[in-house]
Amino acid sequence: MPASIPRIAAALIALVCWTGIALQFSATYGHSGGVLLTLWTLARFFTIISNLAIAATMTIVALGGRISPFLLGGLSLAILLVGIVYLLLLRGLHPLSGAALLADYLLHYVSPVAMVAYWLACTPHGQLRWSAPLWWTAFPLTYFLYAIVRGEIDGRYPYPFMDVTKLGLARALLNGLVIGAAFIPTGLAVVWADRRLLGRGRSSR
Length: 205
What we know:
It is a single chain. The protein is mostly helical. It has one domain. Helix content is 79%, strand content 0%. It contains nine helices and no strands. The protein has helices spanning 4-32, 35-42, 46-62, 69-90, 98-122, 132-136, 138-154, 164-167, 169-203.
């Protein structure tokens, strides 16, 4: 593969994520009317945080920087589960139109598919350890605790499955643990795929 292909692909993914975040910012700003309030609102959502992390990482790659396969694998896993959770639990909860609808499409559909495709095709394989999923799980669990604390402060929760006011704290935390636990088997599948892809790469030479 030409060396320029991964950088071009990374630039396109960064463009998708930055565009989706900008569109969501515009749509949210239209309701909040303030920059700081808009930023505070957006920082509530795992979708935004994950896409922002990917946007920054892929920008670095596009500019020639190097990112570890561990981080690329973890981000791919995180955004994949963003798309899965959205499809299974969140799609259609709120009517969307205009910039918000396009942002929704870019952040929940395009970026997960594009990032996973990038990981499959452009990331060096064979470097992930079986312990990686345990470390990757720290990301969603830390976010979940952050979101719960935020909700306790301002009374707003980003997703219905963590709404303490309706579910109670115990049920909300249990939901968080279930979603966090999904990172383990899915992460193990990522490590398995990583090793299989390395074997295929060697056999094709």
